[in-house]
Amino acid sequence: MTEKVYTDYFYDEADFDKNHFRYKNLHIPDGVEAQPLAVPPVLKPDKVDGNDIWFTIESLEGETQFLPGSKTKTWGYNAPFLGQTMVLKTGQHVHVTLKNSLKELTTYHWHGMEVPGPYIDGSCHAPVYPGEEKEIEFTVEQPAALTWLHAHPCPSTAAQVWMGLAMGVVITDDHEAELPIPKAYGKDEFPIVLQDRVFHKDNQFDYRADYDPMGVFGDTPLINGTIKPYIDVTTQKVRLLFLGGTNRREWRLHFDNDLVMTQIAGDDSFLEHPVKMTKLLVGPGERLQVIVDFSGYKSGDVVNLYTDDFKLIEFRIHDFEEDNSVLPDTLFTPTDPKVDPDAPIRKVTMDDHDKINGKQYSMQRIDMKAEVNHAEYWDVTNTNSKSHGMLHPFHIHGAHFLVVSRNGQTPNPNEIGVYKDTIEVAPQETVRLKVIFPKEGLFMYHCHIIEHEDAGMMANILIVDPTKPEPHYDLMDMETLTKAFAEEKGIPESEVFMPGMCTEGYMDHCHDDANSGASHH
């Protein structure tokens, strides 16, 4: 493994979210004491029969004690807030009962999972209504990775995620089992779900009050739903699975004394080669796994993880046994499919804060069409100006990609030889991706600043098998969605709060400051 250590974030500081208007600095509210990091328990299957495994995932309302005083009304999956960690193994056939115990419709999007679309993928075209249960099934046919599940009922994705509808989905495989890396969940391997929230009167969330079309910042960090967490370090090496679970905030992570992190995995696979660094940027929707070696510390020491200059997590060092394990130089070998040299290059632009290729999203419009298992080059451009633009995290449902270049130059070191599905694109930058969809269906691609996708920075691509008749999907539309939300809340359609996306000539009032469901807690 190369001993080179990278000491920057690979992006221009001028593009960081902290340099943009309405950025919120983080703080810890008064009265909060340090507490152990909450480690989500592993979700127990309903049944296992050979290679088949069954789960129930229930969206439900709850209450969470974040702060002294009143509990906060929250939503979660099989939990009051966020959810339990679902662990799957490559090759398993997975059966899931999706149960909606909320008072409004939701969807279940498998971010990073290569499953058919749109109904199993769980985009806005796959609603599960209040009191309803739906059965889905899929086979896991991808390498070890940290993926995640979150609500995606555009244009209310941001509000429902804000309430807590997100959870980790860990994929394991035989190759990972053989690697000499920490893998004792909750002991030397920890999921780190990075989020932020604003607490209003009586410690409640109020998404409507916080709404900002440029992206909603919280001012209080929640790490796995924990404020001011610490981790007791009882092993020399610790594996951290970072998930950018925020609506808008970027996380620029570093340790005390520039302690080195060794990145071993990205969104959808291990890296081909480990990369050592002292600074790591995690954008909305991204997942990055690192190993941290605490051999230079002794029992009683405390090592802090920061975002910028704000302390996020204390690592409290205890006695540990020496660990002389050595990472191999090659962790994973990605398949690098050939692209037809005569095939046109897809051109995708992210424009303003609410458009893809100059258009706002329409649920029933097919923006592109491609063949299943057919590799293509996509040139993804952020058209924002350098003076007023921002990093846009570009995400594709149901696909993985390899990063080919940034403005014609070599990609960032931790983007080489790894499957990704989400990537930060800087203002006036074009990133070339080699994209492949392994499953048929209709899929979305969008900015993962969630308010931007809700506002219309999103599009649909239809993936077909040219040897079969083209499928037809019953796609959601704004009128049906709005009527459903209005009926569920018992309010006129004119009062449904779905800010941003006025794309189908239906809701001329949708920018108004109106009442809401998920946003009115």
Automatic annotation (TrEMBL):
Cytoplasm in keyword set: no
UniProt-listed CDD domains: CuRO_2_CueO_FtsP
Swiss-Prot/TrEMBL keywords: Metal-binding, Oxidoreductase
Domain of life: Bacteria
Entry coiled-coil feature ranges: none
InterPro entries with a match to the protein in the record: Cu-oxidase-like_N, Cu-oxidase_C, Cu-oxidase_fam, Cu_oxidase_CS, Cu_oxidase_Cu_BS, Cupredoxin
One Pfam family named in its UniProt record: Cu-oxidase_2
SUPFAM superfamilies membership: Cupredoxins
Record GO terms (molecular function): copper ion binding; oxidoreductase activity
Family affiliation: Belongs to the multicopper oxidase family.
Originating species: Lactobacillus mulieris
Ranges for domain Plastocyanin-like: 64-174, 346-463
Name by which UniProt lists this protein: Multicopper oxidase domain-containing protein
UniProt keyword Oxidoreductase, yes or no: yes
